[in-house]
Amino acid sequence: MSGAESLFDDWIGEGEDSTANRNTKKVQFKDGIDDSLANMVVDSSPVSGVLWKDKLLGGLVSKSLDGAVNLDLEFKNGGIRRSNLNGILAIVFSDRITKILIKGMELTMVVKLHGRNIGYGDLYNCITSLWKPTKSFRPMDVANRYYLIRFQSRVDYDLALTQGPWIVFGHYLTVQSWTVDFNPSRTFP
Q: Could you tell me which residue ranges the DUF4283 domain spans (predicted)?
């Protein structure tokens, strides 16, 4: 027998020691309906486990930034105005509410990889290895290959913003502070 035939026989289980490598577990099939299946006991209390969203975001959903306490906003009359323009709901916030919302975006930056598309997971892994943040961060895919990165630490934010240049997969990664004027449908300066 040639070498090739011997390899082929071993591969399909005809060679030496092939019986020792076989699984000897027996399977039994039942023809009728088993009474134990009809009388199964089901635990009616839900099992508390890790939610998929929490696992995806790394448990960041319930954490606040820099240990800040979540504020219950008190909406006064005139704080929020709703209107309907041609069947489209418009919401206008007062200056006080707008300042609070903008303050929450303080540690957010705009990131874009030029010359190449990159997915959420790849971007997260690459910038984690580049920046080595001390606290976790949250990227958010917006549109037109822009991502918003929200940091939990001012030190990590400043390092990512001031160091560089950052290169991912041989392409430049632009990093800029988020501003109110950011619009992903236009070229961001």
A: 106-185
